[in-house]
């Protein structure tokens, strides 16, 4: 993404600037320090050069003092000066060797100083020997004075040169310090400037990100709103469809009921005429069939359109209740047995009632003439799903018909009453409970229907079954 | 206290169904006066003695109300709710007589105060049985 490369570039540049600035400041600082160190050593040289002539003069005045007074006490300072002068020679030579001072001049000064020193020593020796006049004679010569003057001049010259260099060095050192300070500030400003710029860039970047995030949130909210609106409109459409289908069914059943009832009355009224009675009875039967068809279609529509909340259901209680409720499932009519206890499954009570009442009704209906229906209900448990088998001793289903079995209005055998919707409903309702349905069958060998459902988790409390009371059921 | 037989008030919007019911009562030998109204609104008007029935002498309060569910204007549930709010009519039993066999309709009617619920049969004999049952259950005591 552009922004992370950008960020890396900014941090990298900042690091480079900081590193470069620090190095630069260090080196200019270093140069300034070295300049000052040089100045310090130059100053030392100058001091040395200033000291030297006074050492010589001290030696000379002690010599003079001794000559004048013949007192030994003047020889002490003399000897000390000599010692110092000797070590000065060494120092000066060392400085010359180090390149601090011009070596020819240093040699000249040393040579001249040695001449002077030997002169002094000579005069002192003469005096010691009692030859004062000779000693004085040497002093009085121009040569003596000239040597001293020469020494002084040479030293002066050298010193002045050194002083000049010192002044230069001083200026240079000052400049170096100023330069370093300037560099320090510039580097600081550059770094701060860069930081400010980088910060501004990153802030702009973050703003952009925030903006696009906000836009995304807005779009997402709009989308959610649209989805909610669509869902609401779909829900209301489904509700309307349900109402319409229910109204249609209700309105159709009313005249149908009238037809059945009056045909029934007619049938009683023409008891004598068997043909007429037969005809009237046919009207009754047809009306009853049509009514069942309407009811089944209505059930199918309901199973498609209705909202189906799923929860844990006690299948054992439900199926046993069904067997008790429907007369065609009672002990006088059929042998229905349940192996063990049926489990608790995830489903919808109304849909499960539909499903199993249809399966059981089929199981007891489709038997051969004179055969007592025997139905066995058992469970085949899986890991988190289970199969409930409904096995009958009925007429069975031909293989070719298996494909159409669960279709709408598919009747496989016209000898038996039915609308052909029952199994379509069973398939639909199991679908809606996230279940599956299937069958194993051979003609003449009965059928074994299975319904596969999700097992309810152990901890849930099963939904209580509602009791239908007081309704008079009329077949 | 009148010694006349109590009125059976029937609320039924479909003429044919009302006709069949009357026929059934006749066949059952019931001679209580039967008044048929064609929707919930007319039930209310009868019970409050207004509009067509504002003559209490001619139209006394019924001994029983046989109530259909699906009717125009006010339906069966609306009537049940109306009666529930009026202590004056609490003594009159209400029996539902509807084509719907829906569990939820049955439950709701009972919750709103219906004493019983019957699904309209397809056989005339069952209509007659129903008529006899009504009289013996609800109208046999003195009023």
Give the overall pLDDT of chain A as a whole number.
87
Order of helices and strands of chain A: HHHHHHEHEEHEEHHEE
The helix count of chain A comes to 10
Global mean pLDDT of chain B: 91
Structural class of chain A: alpha+beta
User: How would you write the strand order of the largest sheet of chain B?
Assistant: 2-1-3-4-5
Outline the structure in words.
The complex is a heterodimer of chains A (475) and B (143). Chain A has 475 residues and is α+β, with helices and mostly antiparallel strands. In chain A, strands 1, 2, 3, 4, 5, 6 and 7 form a seven-stranded mixed beta sheet that branches. Chain A contains ten helices and seven strands. In chain A, a hairpin with a 3-residue loop joins strand 4 and strand 5 (385-392). Chain B is α/β, with parallel strands linked by helices and 143 residues long. Chain B has a five-stranded parallel beta sheet with strand order 2-1-3-4-5. In chain B, helix 2 (40-48) packs parallel to helix 3. Chain B is globular, with a radius of gyration of 14 Å. The model of chain B has no long low-confidence stretch (mean pLDDT 91). Classes of the chains: A alpha+beta (475), B alpha/beta (143). Chains A and B meet through helix 5 and helix 6 of A and helix 1, helix 4, strand 5 and helix 5 of B.
């Amino acid at each position: 993404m552009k922004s992370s490369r950008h960020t890396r570039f900014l941090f990298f540049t900042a690091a480079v600037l900081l590193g470069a600035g620090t190095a630069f400041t260090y080196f200019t600082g270093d140069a300034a320090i070295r300049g000052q160190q040089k100045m310090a050593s130059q100053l030392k040289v100058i001091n040395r050069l200033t000291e030297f002539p006074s050492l010589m003069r001290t030696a000379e005045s002690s010599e003079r003092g001794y000559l004048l007074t013949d007192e030994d006490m003047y020889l002490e300072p003399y000897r000390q000066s000599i010692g110092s002068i000797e070590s000065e020679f060494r120092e000066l030579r060392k400085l010359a060797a180090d390149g601090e001072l011009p070596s020819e001049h240093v040699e000249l000064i040393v040579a001249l100083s040695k001449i002077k020193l030997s002169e002094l020593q000579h005069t002192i020796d003469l005096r010691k020997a009692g030859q004062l006049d000779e000693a004085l004679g040497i002093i009085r010569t121009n040569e003596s004075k000239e040597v001293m003057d020469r020494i002084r001049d040479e030293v002066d010259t050298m010193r002045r040169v050194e002083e000049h260099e010192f002044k230069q060095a001083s200026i240079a050192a000052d400049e170096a310090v100023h330069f370093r300070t300037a560099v320090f500030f510039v580097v600081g400003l550059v770094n701060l400037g860069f930081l400010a710029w980088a910060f501004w860039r990153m802030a702009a970047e973050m703003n952009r990100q925030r903006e696009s995030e906000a836009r995304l949130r807005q779009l997402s909210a709009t989308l959610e709103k649209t989805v909610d609106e669509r869902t609401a409109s779909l829900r209301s459409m489904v509700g309307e469809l349900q109402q319409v289908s229910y109204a249609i069914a209700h309105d159709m059943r009313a005249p149908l009921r009238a037809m059945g009832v009056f045909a029934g009355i007619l049938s009683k009224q023409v008891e004598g005429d068997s043909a007429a009675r037969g005809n009237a009875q046919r009207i009754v039967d047809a009306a009853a069939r049509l009514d069942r068809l309407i009811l089944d279609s209505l059930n199918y529509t309901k199973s498609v359109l209705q909202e189906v909340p799923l929860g844990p259901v006690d299948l054992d209680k439900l199926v046993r209740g069904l067997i008790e409720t429907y007369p065609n499932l009672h002990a006088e009519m059929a042998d229905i047995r349940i192996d063990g206890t049926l489990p608790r499954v995830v489903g919808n009570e109304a849909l499960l009632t539909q499903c199993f009442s249809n399966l059981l009704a089929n199981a007891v209906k489709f038997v051969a003439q004179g055969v007592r229906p025997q139905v066995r209900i058992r469970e085949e448990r899986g890991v988190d799903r289970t199969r409930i088998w409904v096995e009958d001793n009925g007429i069975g289903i031909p293989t070719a018909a298996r494909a159409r079995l669960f279709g709408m209005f598919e009747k496989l055998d016209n000898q038996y009453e039915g609308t052909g919707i029952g199994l379509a409903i069973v398939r639909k309702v199991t679908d809606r409970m996230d279940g599956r349905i299937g069958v194993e069958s051979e003609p003449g060998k009965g059928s074994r229907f299975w319904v596969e459902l999700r097992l309810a988790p152990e901890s849930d409390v099963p939904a209580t079954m509602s009791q239908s009371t007081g309704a008079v059921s009329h077949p | 206290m009148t010694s006349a037989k109590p009125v059976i008030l029937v609320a039924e919007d479909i003429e044919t169904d009302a006709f069949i019911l009357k026929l059934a009562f006749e066949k059952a030998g019931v001679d209580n006066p039967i008044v048929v109204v064609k929707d919930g609104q007319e039930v209310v008007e009868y019970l409050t003695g207004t509009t067509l029935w504002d003559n209490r002498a001619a139209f006394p309060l019924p001994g029983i109300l046989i109530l259909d569910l699906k009717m125009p204007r006010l339906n069966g549930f609306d009537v049940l709710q109306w009666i529930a709010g009026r202590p004056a009519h609490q003594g009159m039993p209400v029996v539902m007589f509807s084509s719907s066999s829906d569990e939820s309709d049955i439950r709701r009617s009972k919750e709103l105060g219906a004493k019983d619920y019957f699904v309209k049969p397809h056989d005339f004999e069952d209509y007659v049985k129903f008529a006899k049952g009504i009289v013996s259950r609800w109208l046999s005591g003195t009023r």
